[in-house]
Amino acid sequence: MNTPSDSRTKKLTSMLRQFWRSGFGTADAAPLAPTGVARKSASWVPIRSLSPRHKPRIARQLRALPNADRYLRFGYAATDEQIERYVQGLNFERDEIFGVFNRRLELVAMAHLAYSVDPKWATCAEFGVSVSPHQRGKGLGAKLFAHAVMHARNQGVNLLFIHALSENVAMLKIARHAGAVVQRDGSESEAYLSIPEATLDSQLNGLMQEQMAELDYQLKMQAHQFRQWLDTVQEIRRGVRDARHSTRGP
What we know:
By secondary structure, this protein is an alpha+beta fold. The chain is built from 8 helices and 7 strands; from the N terminus they run ααβαααβββαβαββα. About 8% of the residues have low confidence.
């Protein structure tokens, strides 16, 4: 007899197949994606919304960044203590924090979509991203940016802002490819991306991607738990085998 959980899994699996067959989205959302990266890699990346329980993983991902990357991400060479304060100060109720997990459930890339706290600028948001060094070259930064744009669009944001050091070539390239206007002022640059109003198509596309990312995360979680169980079984077997050898004597 199928349980509600089984039915939900089957439904999401069916949706995932349809999503893949459709080319990972609709033409309406295509112009918002960084086209330069999209041509290089059209593969879908599961991007999941993070919650306060993911703070340890977020801190671990940021602390693993080398000093040069910390400098580019925060605009200064952030120490472990400063990173910890940043993570603890994340507002998950107001802002959106997205992440990409590998099969071992390690957070390898994360993005922060911060909404304005000033009601006069309620339709504005700022974007920041970090990608682990061993995951570079896969277009994760660009895909996180495209995902953030889609999410911001569906939340009524019409202007996305990026503040970056001028030497952060990768981030500014992503912004330019998405159609943002980049203004340079010495060692710092600012990028502004005008976002069109949300449509039913963009909202459905966003909902579909969130559901697929959640299914992907649950499957990875089950695989991770199964591997842990296998490790425990193997450890017990080794213990039993060693005990048998010790009782037999020389």
